[in-house]
Amino acid sequence: QVQLVESGGGLVQTGGSLRLSCAASGRTFSSYTMGWFRQAPGNEREFVASITWSGGTTYYADSVKGRFTVSRDSAKNTLYLQMNSLKPEDTAVYYCAARRGVLRTTTRNEYNYWGQGTQVTVSS
Predict the structure, then answer these.
(1) Contact 34, 97 (CB under 8 A)
(2) Which pLDDT does position 55 carry in this prediction?
(3) pLDDT of the residue at 69
(4) CA-CA distance, 26 to 24, in Å (whole number)?
(5) Quick one: DSSP state of residue 42?
(6) Contact 69/123 with Cβ under 8 angstroms?
(7) C-alpha distance from residue 54 to each of 3, 25, 26 (Å)
(8) What is each CA distance from 115 to 3, 87, 111, in whole angstroms?
(9) What was the pLDDT predicted at 12?
């Protein structure tokens, strides 16, 4: 049973930083792609970033490129999202997700497993 548990959310001022973590368990993720999505009130859940667990290939939404960095620590089975230069429009619940395979996709329905989410609030 795959389990994804996010942590690290909170309240931060505009221009500040946060690092989200996602502890993954339940199987070997070497053939998986891990992703971060977010959902603001009234909005659809949208893609933020992804990384292939084995090769470390990353991909970002244009809205976060240059500000956010996705990484993983295979020894700890943990996924990270370093968020810098945060803006009020980054306010959302952030979700960790996993999908089998390494083809790049930003489509939420392509991801098989989801965490419960962690709230990020950026004040102006």
Answers:
(1) yes
(2) 86
(3) 98
(4) 7
(5) T
(6) no
(7) 19, 16, 17
(8) 7, 23, 11
(9) 98
The phi and psi torsions of 108 (rounded to 5 degrees) equal -60, -35
| Counts for the chain of helices (H) and strands (E), in that order | 0, 11
Q: Which of 97, 14, 4 is nearest to 51 (CA)?
A: 97
- C-alpha to C-alpha distance for 29 and 44, rounded to whole angstroms: 27
Residue 116 DSSP code: -
Per-residue b or e along 41-57, where b marks 16 or more CB atoms closer than 10 Å to that residue's CB: eeeebebbbbbbbeeee
Q: d(Cα 36, Cα 17) in Å, to the nearest integer?
A: 16
Q: Which of 59, 65, 48, 37 is nearest to 104 (CA)?
A: 59
Q: Which two tokens stand for residue 44?
A: 């659809």
pLDDT averaged per 10 residues in sequence order, the chain, 124 residues: 96 98 94 96 96 93 98 95 98 97 90 97 96
